[in-house]
Amino acid sequence: MFNKISTWFSSKKSSDQATNGKEIAVYAPLDGRVISLEEVSDPAFSQKMLGDGMAIEPVSRKVLAPFDGKVAAIFPTKHAIGLRSLAGLECLIHVGIDTVTLGGLGFHLLVKEGQTVKQGTPLIDLDLSVLRSSGIELVTPVVITNSECWQIKERWEQQAISAGNEILFIAQPVGKNIF
Predict the structure, then answer these.
(1) Per-position pLDDT tens, the chain of length 179
(2) Domain total for the chain?
(3) Is 63 contained in some domain?
């Protein structure tokens, strides 16, 4: 899995991709309860092997684009999607833990790889009854995959979050002061 994710985005990674030191607001892609990555049961996320971020225990069925950008990659089993902002922030939305074992069951893609999206654009429609009946944990990590270029400046502090309306975290180029 790690090799596939690392090849999703361009191999050209530099702090030049972080245009003009702009911050990027990463909006919640799902309604639900916010948890820290450290609370996610999969060590790939809890140990931040794929990057820093936050996670959501979802209650809504539509996964929304957290910022304006492009769909950089879609995992073949439809449970994970990679996005790249106009400023170069790369983000992975990974619906559930071990959802790859479902082979795409319960996931309906609403976008295509390479498609330009606006913040709030529906990306994936989840069949929550199918997913819940599978016994799979639905916690959804949202991580910065090019953390050598971007870092989290500020995180959502509340437990409940509303998709598309509330900011999950604010990312800024590496090297900027974090206060």
Answers:
(1) 444 454 454 444 443 444 556 899 999 999 999 999 999 999 999 999 999 999 999 999 999 999 999 999 999 999 999 999 999 999 999 999 999 999 999 999 999 999 999 999 999 999 999 999 999 999 999 999 999 999 999 999 888 999 999 999 999 999 865 54
(2) 1
(3) yes
Assess if residue 68 is contained within a domain.
yes
Q: Please, what is the end-to-end C-alpha distance for the chain in angstroms?
A: 34
| Strand 69-74 to 116-117 pairing | antiparallel
Which of the 8 DSSP states describes residue 97? B
- Return the CATH number at 87: 2.70.70.10
pTM of the predicted structure, to 2 decimals: 0.89
In a domain, 93, yes or no: yes
For residue 145 the two structure tokens come to: 């995959």
Catalytically active residues are 94
**Secondary element (H or E) of residue 44:** helix 43-46
Q: Which domain holds residue 37?
A: 23-173
For residue 79, give every residue at least 6 positions away whose Cβ sits within 8 Å of its Cβ, in sequence order, or none.
Answer: 94, 95, 96, 99, 100, 102, 104, 107
Whether 86 is in a domain gets the answer yes
